[in-house]
Prior knowledge:
Elements: H1 2-5, H2 10-36, H3 46-68
Helix pairs in contact: 2-3
Amino acid sequence: MAEVAARKSLVERKRFYEIARSSLVEIDTQLEISINLRYFSRERIAVLEEKMNYLFAMLSKLIQSGQKE
């Protein structure tokens, strides 16, 4: 997130947040695959999934707040 501080325009910051949110979706997909392949149990990654959901919501709010300006 430190990188976003260097972004000068609202459009640049919004795009950065969108990329970060997309990266979370990619990680979630990889976690689902790892569960299906039995590398991890859902219980083992539950805390990680909670944190990812929180970050996704936070990034979504940042993106939405930029649209109001």
